[in-house]
Amino acid sequence: MPRQFLDYCAGQRDWLLDFIAALVAIESPSDDPIAVNRCGAELAARLSALGAEVTRLPPSTPGLPTVALAKAGDHLRASFGQGPRQILLLGHFDTVWPIGQLKTMPLKRENGRLYGPGIFDMKAGIALATLATRAVMAEDGLDQCQVVMLWTTDEEIGSTTSRALIEAEAQRSEAVLVFEPSLPGGGLKTSRKGVGQFEMRVRGVSAHAGLDPGKGISAVRELARQIIAIDDLQDPASGVTVTVGVIEGGTRANVVPAEARAIIDARAVTRADADRVERAMTALVPQIAGAQITVTGGFDRPPLERTAAVAGLFAAAQAVAKNLGLTLEEGSAGGGSDGNFTAALGVPTLDGFGAVGDGAHALHEHIEIDALVPRAAVIAGLIARLTA
Ligand SMILES: [Zn+2]
Q: How close is the Cα of 344 to the center of ligand 1, in Å?
């Protein structure tokens, strides 16, 4: 069986490269819904042509009126096959690159690599998932278990309009394969840090720095002390990082500042550590008499933990690769993805099925062409195994 997938995917190599090029050619920055929907229309047409049932899902955030979401494009759901069971192939087609980036970063082939904005993160992953699904369909009617794809449009800006959809679809699924970029060399991601963002606002009392300094309460001074306290929440040994990335405060050098604020990034490997950081952040108290602080935010992406279910899914993928004479490694990533949401629900989730390459969000973003076919075959073998 796996050998057949390798042959099938090898025969579709040009089809795959054309699919990748077509998606990269239509730029799709997260915050430009018209552009994103143009890319989505191309993707939807290609999936429909393969026999998928494709639905456009308008962005939605529970509790927010749709009109507030005008800046997000439509997400796409595509299902192949029938049957009561389903597995989910998950990813996004928005990118971090603005319209016009193709001029400075044209789609080009060089030394066995294919370059272009969004190619690695993660348009090639969508094409790989599609080829793998085609390979399975060529062998099997998928009449017991559907392959459902969910391609979203706001992953790069926090997934606020897709999270509910992702979670609902994951809850109906036996497993979730995420097509974000692979680890260097092609490894899969069996753990990802959870990601949080906090904002601290400090209020003091303004005063003339020369005439009335005693009447002022410096918000900047209070914030400086808070930054030390926030920094102390780090625990590098257990992978907990807390970074005060942005600070702002004050108006003029001769005014005791009444306002200051900081934006803080926090990451943790386990839910327990994420909860601990969240509690500690909200428990911070002013250190200077009369100053006020408010902390908002939290972990919006829970950690993807290497649970037994995750390890089991990786073992299955590794066995498929071994059958094809390939090795498949696993590792962890410091960045979060939509896989963090599905894993936190307890649904077996494996991430990093996208292309082998490098340079996500960077000018040298590219994929390795020769790694595509074997990767598609491994994915096909795993899908066949999961849907059998
Ligand atoms: Zn991505």
A: 18
